[in-house]
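Internal ticket #5521
Category: modeling
Description: The requester needs a full-assembly model to guide mutagenesis choices. All entity lines are attached below as received. Residue total reported by intake: 1071.
Assigned to: D.W.
Attached entities:
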Amino acid sequence: MHLALRFLRLPITLAITFLVLTALLWNAPGRDMDEARWGQTQTAASALPKWSSGLDFAAWYAGELLHGRGGTSIQFNVPVMELIAERAPVTAGHAWRGFLAAWLATLLAGSLSYFWPAAGRAALGAGSLLRSLPAAFVVLALVLAGAPAWIGLAVVLWPKASSYWLTLLSQSGGRNHVLALIAQGAGPWRTQWHGIWRPCARQLAGLLAVTVPLLLGALIPVEVLCDEPGLGQLAWKAVAGRDLPLLTTITLLFTAVTSTASLLAESLLPEAQ
Amino acid sequence: MNRAAAGLLIALGLLLILGPLVTPYTYAAQDRDHILASPDADHWLGTDALGRDNFARFLYGGRLSLTMAAAASLAACAVAAAVGTAGALPGASHAATAVLFDVMLSMPWFLLVFIVRALLPLDAPPLTTAAITFAVLGFTGWAHGGRVLRDAAAGMAGSPWVRQARATGSGGAALWRRHIIPNLLPLLLTQFLLLLPMLMLTEATLGMLGLGIPEPLPSWGGSLAELVRPDTATQRPWTLIPALLLALTSISLRQLAGGTDKREAVFG
Amino acid sequence: MKHLLLLLPAALLSAAELRLSMRSDPRTLEPLAVTDQNSDTVRYLTTARLVRRHRITQKLEPELAEKWEVRDQGRTLVFRLRAGLRYADGTPADSQDVKTTINRLLDTVKAYPMAEGLRAAGIAAVETPSPLEVRIRTNEPVAGLESFFEEVPILSSRSPLKDNAALGPFILAEYKRGSFLRFQRNPNYFRKDSTGRPLPRLDAIRVDIQANPELERTRFEKGELHILSALDPESFTALQKSGQAQDAGPTLDGEILWFNQFPGAPIPEHRKRWFRSREFRRAISAALHRDDLVRVVYSGRAVPGVGPIAPSAREWSSPKVRAQPFDPKETAANLAKAGFIQRGGQLHDAEGNAVTFSLLTNSNNRQRMRMAAMIQQDLEKIGIRLQVVALDMPALLERMTRSSNYDAILLGMVGIDLDPNDQMNIWLSSSGSHAWNPSQKQPATPWEAEIDQLLKAQFHATSPAKRKQALHRFQEIVAAEVPVLYLVHPNALAAVSRQLTGVRLSSLLPRVLWNVEELDLAAPLTAASQ
């Protein structure tokens, strides 16, 4: 029952996000202004779809969603779902690579730090430096040097991931059961595996879930600066163009992913309960 | 390490306060015959593309970025504390704040920046626009800290010493006021110290995306926007100084935050 | 519509593939509905027109029409088409296609923006006495009617491919939205070179969608792109050393500033009085250092702004009208004449209001932001406090066209067409795009009434001399009344790979690709660059 109530959170979050976003977008200056028509005798706003009010748009959009559609993009004049289907593989492609790379590097740093604490400190130090520079700056420097977008994502994600994981490991390392393993003469690999990794597996899963919203947040500057035609770039264009149907759909998609990840993280991480 | 971090921040603060007394230039004065000049006796950090003194812009920009980020961070922490403690109460309050956090974390925050900037009256002074930009960032940035505080407050509410306080007759608002909230203050300070550099870095990212502090006001984030050109850093390496100082400030603040609270909060 | 006709597998494409980029996707692939530059590029590559403007000589030259003739004192335009024209799929092209295209363009329901000029011309009839002859009759004489057709793509009325049937040098073979467009040579293209060899020389063109100009430049430097066609002055300076940067001189574009003179604007009345004062506008104009703008912002790659007809439009630009020089004496004299006084370092009007107003411009344009900062500094020296406000384009357009809630705007005008008729919709006082005071029921001032008359007179002029006379007078009025301050006309800057031959960079759009059928790659692309 408790779990069922928890998962009710998802549709409620989506509904509230939808209403807030509609209210924001409807009142956003520049709605239905078409730059390409400036200079024509027709006014800038003439050729775009018309809704009479924010509620009108909300009702129309809800109807579209019920039919599995997200309307038609004002800028691209293409069904929104078609745009998302085109771009989702691009985003998924560098998102999973970046996510995997960040966490592999994190887990490697975690393992090394057990044998060489200095390595752990160096990893934390490097992470601290990376977190102290704007993500956009780091990503652009990498891309201009020829690195693909997923490396930019990994570099943005890794400092947070590694600081979470290394902190967790250092807290676990001093626990009684670990000391007992060492006292029993267990080797360093066995101690790590049985004393730290296995007990922390659930928390690791929780941390993985926690970093998903961070990944989504990094997507927009990464894709915009790297010119990757993914969902992040699409979201940026949707905001810049006040493309109501497109931005609403993408935001709801991101909200669904963020909420799901938050729910998973809360279920898996004890301090969140 | 904490002493080094504190020392760096104090030195920086003194430089930013006293520095403008030393330089004869304002941040907006243009010397159009000396654009993109290298550092020399007159212009210690050279000049920018409009002949404005980089040292003056660095000083004023640092003041602006730090002051406004600090104010926004303070406001964000206040909101985070209010929402976080409300969320620590069991039942509907907890669920409601969880939904609120998810909504805040999912919204495209730069949309808010676009909208708010466009709604401002045209005769709003540039400082007001800059302040509002930071306020928007603070408004969208409180959710992370709010979750940390909620979890911490919920943990405290169930801790043995709070149970003991309840057993001795303390309850309701008094329990929170006397026992829980004072114990949240170190965590609040940590969140403040973590959020401050985050807001400065976010402003820098906004600057690189074209949404930063408006001209002619300088900011450290705005100076980073010049570095998007591949050859800027190699041909004019002194333009990296704001980036370096931003990084050092951020590292120092994080170091201090780490010193006030040993836990690396998972949601912060 | 992601993938259009793919006539040859990609693997069979020769290595003579030109690579360039554009900043965003074309808004439309429908040739008649084009309103943006990227869509226009696609249209230019895949379609052909009756006449074409030679971008170097600026003269109209034959394209689908091998000759044309004006009769009935400018009321009839007769085109004689080339024989043997075929679309890429083999469908013949003849006068019927021209007639159908013009009729489609004049459709009042679709109301294609590019047809505004033709609608204004008042086309009475389009006749096709033979497959190779088209007669276009107008109700009144129209000056330069043939130049209206340099933009009109002639579409097929019979091909099963409909609008996708290409008559231009290339066929759109593949389009991946957000990524790239690929064009293949049209084997039925009508042009041949001087030796009789069929054109185009290139086998294919690939246009990548690349929004980030720094990444675009990096790719060019690595040899992955052959052309950078919208080069900013800083990048031009950096690329000059490699010898690949080219400067074709001033364009038709203009960076302009105007004041809000709309009577219903929700701004203080005293500001409206300032902006309506010719002396005030002239004072501001003379207070600006246009030479500094050219030198500092454009690294010398621009010329001071002159007026609505840029000096590069050699046929129509008035020799009497020059760029306003920086002239503090003129500024002081005009301010005094208008009753402004200096008090405590701040300028005040006759009622004692401190002169302060805002300048709106679009964010994310580095040159414009710098110009705004320089203008702010120039006006500060005469005691005017200027607030620079940068908004994103939709928000700016909202204030400009819907709410009229602004004081002054700094924006750029892109000059597409050499013929001044292209600007009618901005300069006619009744137009919704009449920047400073749109949609006037009656001209608000005598000089705007005179401009309306002059523009209509030049539109219906029966001789080039009369037309020129009217246009020169129009430019003189604009220079005297200064409803719009022309700041700079930027130069056409591009970077062209040494591998690419045949390029003749023009200051007119499309600057590099205007003679795309003559371009060729001297050496094939290496595998590394592919």
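Resolution: model delivered.
Comment from assignee: Residues 296 and 370 of chain C are 9 Å apart (CA to CA).
Ticket closed.
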